[in-house]
Design a protein that fits this description.
two-stranded antiparallel ribbon; globular; nine-stranded mixed β-sheet
């Protein structure tokens, strides 16, 4: 971990205000030309049921247990109806060995206790490997087979049904490491039939950048049957319009990139992509993601049956107050869990 920054998936927090699918379900696709106004749930968050179903994995907001005054996951479940969480982040301990934040053992500590509590309450977890800060397994493991072995330790520790690789910073920018991650995930898919894998990366307002497109193309060339290529549509460094509109534009670009690489039609491409937004103020001046933006994203996700709709993070899903640390509030006026309650409606 970098001691001077929070465990963000993109960059440091703005002036003490902070931030950082189950695919191929048997749904009848709706017309992609529909607008968010055509989906009542996009405008009325209470319209959709919150009961867990086979698509509940698709809505698994991030919670970070390392700092940011994390809420008890079971309390979040009771308050919002969310059933799945994405727990972050597993990193390298300096070698090709996974630990929470690079220093907490996988089992026997607070992280395992939280996972056990979520499962006892009828939910489950995705574990996220990577993030912006700290030592990355993709770089510390010298081969794809070694990296697959590190991922397998995480899977075995919790008998996971889903794994998220949040690939950022130098792990993302190096072509050799991108290939290593792709090859390791292909091994993971072979060793663990039925496991769901997500690859999460940054994006531009029009879709993945050159490194992102290269990562997707390497996945397709390797025959990686990845369940969800997921973008983080914020910290753009400049965009036009609302953050909701910019997110939909980025998703359209992602869909096109995945479709080209894999030879998918529009419906299959949409079912293999996802979005991991953030709530409230971001690291960039002029960027604020609102609940209206989340409802717009929810409408798009429902129309196209995206593999994943999540966000960073539950820790931030509350208004800021005195004494709140840098990754524990949204920086906007809100009631507790407004953003989580919207995401919890998504069922794939």
């Amino acid at each position: 971990m970098h001691a001077d920054r929070p465990p963000r998936r993109t960059a440091a927090v703005l002036a003490g205000l902070s931030c950082l699918l189950l695919p191929l379900l048997a749904h009848v696709p709706r017309a992609s030309a529909a607008t968010e106004a055509d989906d009542p749930g996009a405008e009325h968050p209470s319209a959709a049921p919150k009961a867990a179903g086979p698509g509940a994995m698709a809505a698994a907001p991030y919670e970070y247990l390392g700092w940011g005054d994390p809420q008890k996951p079971t309390e979040v479940m009771a308050a919002t109806g969310v059933k799945w969480f994405t727990f972050a982040f597993v990193l390298s301990d300096g070698t090709c060995n996974p630990k929470w934040d690079g220093d907490r053992a996988l089992t026997g500590g607070k992280d395992q206790s939280a996972i056990d509590a979520v499962r006892a309450a009828g939910g489950d977890v995705v574990v996220s490997v990577g993030g912006w800060s700290g030592n990355k397994l993709g770089e510390k493991c010298s081969s794809a087979s070694a990296l697959a072995g590190a991922y397998q330790k995480v899977i075995d520790a919790y008998h996971l049904k889903a794994l998220d690789i949040d690939i950022e910073d130098t792990e993302f920018s190096k072509a050799t490491v991108r290939q290593r991650v792709v090859d390791a995930l292909k091994t993971v898919k072979t060793r663990n039939p039925g496991i769901v894998t997500y690859v999460t990366m940054g994006t531009t307002p029009t879709g993945p950048d050159a490194d992102g497109k290269d990562l997707i193309e390497r996945g397709a060339a390797a025959g990686l049957d990845n369940d969800g290529w997921v973008i983080m549509p914020f910290d753009f460094g400049g965009h036009g319009g609302t953050m909701g509109a910019a997110t939909l534009s980025a998703l359209d670009g992602l869909k096109a990139a995945v479709g080209r690489a894999y030879g998918y039609g529009d419906d299959a491409a949409h079912r293999h992509i996802g979005v991991s937004s953030t709530n409230g103020r971001t690291d960039e001046a002029g960027e604020t993601v609102t609940t209206a933006d989340f409802r717009k994203i929810l409408g798009y996700a429902r129309r196209h049956h995206l593999a994943r709709f999540t966000f960073w993070s539950v820790n931030r899903d509350r208004a800021c107050g005195s004494g709140t640390d840098a990754d524990a509030c949204s920086g906007v006026s809100q009631s507790p869990y407004e953003f989580t309650k919207i995401v919890a409606q998504y069922q794939g």
